[in-house]
Amino acid sequence: MGWRWLSAKGGEVGVSEVVLRRCVVGALETNTWIIQAAGGRDVLVVDPGDDAERLAGEVEGLRVRGILLTHAHWDHLLALPRLVELVRAPVLAHRAAVEVWARELEYAGEHGYWDAGTATEELLPSGVLTVDPKLKLWDGRIDEELADGQELRVGGLVVRVLHTPGHSPDGVTLALPGHLLTGDTLFPGGPGLTGWPLSDFDTIMESVEHLLTAYDVATGIHPGHGNSTTVGAEAPSLEEWRARGW
After folding, report:
1. Are 89 and 67 in contact (CB under 8 A)?
2. What is the DSSP letter of 102?
3. Which among 242, 185, 178 has a CA at the least distance from the CA of 17?
């Protein structure tokens, strides 16, 4: 799949136009996002799930201000070590990412393959979950720890970090004018997967409720996998999701 381009004018005077590029990578078709202000050269790369050389090529000639993880599940960061080498940018993640990544490595060490949640049994025969012994894995180093309410500058854009745990304790959403990059916290049709270690349904519902009540209905929701949606499209289903329990 190729890049998908999105743009929206910020609602505040003087806010730059947001340009988002999406690249679908890896075994679980993870959305890697590149955030840029229209006309600017500064970019932020979000969730480098796979194919570091391809991602590096897409930001060639631009200034990569950081490589950010919405959370530290393997399918969102397998390209991270190599991409850091290629673009020489710092790693940004919530401090709890260290704990989450340690659990990912523990599972992979015990089983020889990555945990894909409810899709594990279906994907195992294809071999796409098998741990590649030649692949350099992230060492867990975070150059800048992210905190709730923190603001990041990407050229003329202000990107606000929202701590949205539940799918994992390190989960963050990125809020920028007209858009929310929700990682695996919120998708079209409901919250991200819970039920495995370090996840919690009640916690993710608190995170989802905040996102669906604090932002305008026209705000785009861009998850870590699959298609985008809007606050207005998802908000009416909030209580239905809470009642069904997933």
Report:
1. yes
2. H
3. 178
- The residue-averaged pLDDT of 13-25 equals 80
Q: Which pLDDT tens digit goes with each residue over 182-231?
A: 999 999 999 999 988 899 999 999 999 999 999 999 999 999 999 999 99
Domains belonging to the chain, first-starting first, are: 4-244 (3.60.15.10)
The whole-angstrom separation of Cα 130 and Cα 115 is 10
Instruction: Reduce the DSSP state of residue 113 to 3 states and report it.
Output: strand
**63-68/42-46 β-pairing:** parallel
Up-side HSE of residue 163: CA atoms within 13 Å toward CB? 14
CA distances to 46, 53, 162 from 91, rounded to whole Å, are 10, 17, 17
**Token pair belonging to 60:** 């060639």
User: Nearest CA to 204 among 146, 157, 161, 165?
Assistant: 165
Q: Where are the alpha helices (DSSP H) in 88-200?
A: 97-111, 120-123
216 in helix, strand or coil? coil
In the three-class reduction of DSSP (H, G, I as helix; E, B as strand; rest coil), residue 4 is classed as: strand
